[in-house]
Structures are given as structure tokens and as C-alpha cells.
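Model it.
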Amino acid sequence: MHEWMTDNGQTPHLVVNAAAAGADALADYVKDGRLILNVSWQATQNLKLGNDAIEFSARFGGASRQVRIPTQAVLGIYARETGQGMLFQEQEDGDTPPPAAPDPGPEAPRKPRLRVVK
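Modeled.
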């Protein structure tokens, strides 16, 4: 998503769960338990988008800081210009998959319907 947004001239922003382990380094910038980070190439230095963590150096309030966000703490990524992106479900600690949805059983077949579109 980051690459696609950048290739299309948009500014990628991450939505981070500020309460997640390792995401507490920027407590001054937390709002409603979330942290919004501009992760464009222009706003960051040494940006590394890894499988375990996202790492970069950026300026916050005029001071340079090294940031490391675990990928489990990332709740989504979106383009600032359009607001479009992808949100991820929050996961509980642990590796247990979410429970399967109950089987609703067989459904009655529906009749096809046509309607006039003007």
C-alpha cells in the first residue's frame, strides 16, 4: 500500500495503536489512543518497512527521533489526500485465530428481479 500511494503521488499515513507494546515512544502525539504517522519518503529518513516492525527517523517538534513500530500495532494505512486506504483488525495478544462464523444453514433460493433504471 505504501508503495502504491507513493507511486500515485499521495502521502501515506499509518494509524497506530498507541497502547501496543513498543509503540509508546511518541506519547505526546497520541490522540484517542491512536497515533497518526506520516511515513512518506519526504517526512522520514532510513524508512524500513519490515515484516516485524516499521522503523524510521523523523522530526517531531523540531527534534529528531528514531521510531520503531511493531507491525502488530499498525491499525491501518491511508492516503492523506483522499482518505482512502486499508484498515486492519485489532488483534489480541497471542496467535489464536478469530472464531469461525456460525453456519447459517442452507438459504432459500431467491427469485431474480429486474427494475427500470433511468
